[in-house]
Specification:
Elements (H helix, E strand, L loop, with lengths): L1 H13 L3 H19 L4 H16 L3 H19 L4 H16 L3 H18 L5 H15 L7
Length: about 150
């Protein structure tokens, strides 16, 4: 039953209905936490999806807190340079940037860039993307729309 509800919530996101998907992901995260544990992969993925929905509907502060919560669990289970952790760190850095918190974004994106260089290499698309953002931040040319 939970898998079916997860698919429905994912379809809502694909359709751009983030307001409808958000309570479903919140409920799914709670259900998975009860049935599989609060740090289960399914519970964390639902929390992550709920955070993405919150970003889309303008609840950035809550989304940031939720991304950080998920990152704490992912780091404990898989390390700081796991694909999930790298993605969450990028999401956090970019969300900080869109919220006008350039210094906090730099604090998140600098070590992320270092880890991306180690894991994927300096020429990898994700590494270059973060390097470009860092370069623009240093030049003061990054806007909230990026």
């Amino acid at each position: 039953m939970l898998a079916l509800r997860s698919r429905r919530a994912a379809i809502l996101v694909i359709g751009g209905d983030f307001r409808q998907a958000l309570p479903e992901f919140d409920a799914l995260a709670a259900a998975y936490a009860r049935t599989a544990g609060p740090t289960s992969e399914d519970a964390l993925e639902c929390l992550r999806q709920a955070a993405h929905c919150r970003v889309e509907i303008g609840h950035a502060t809550t989304a940031l807190r939720q991304f950080r919560q998920v990152l704490t669990h992912v780091r404990a289970a898989s390390g700081d340079a796991s694909p999930a952790a790298l993605d969450l760190r990028r999401n956090i850095g970019m969300l900080l940037l869109t919220e006008g918190k350039a210094e906090e974004a730099l604090d998140e994106l600098r070590p992320l860039h270092d880890d991306l260089c180690v894991v994927y290499g300096p020429q990898h698309e994700e590494t270059r993307e973060v390097a470009d953002v860092l370069a623009r931040l240093r030049l003061g040319k990054v806007t909230a729309d990026e």
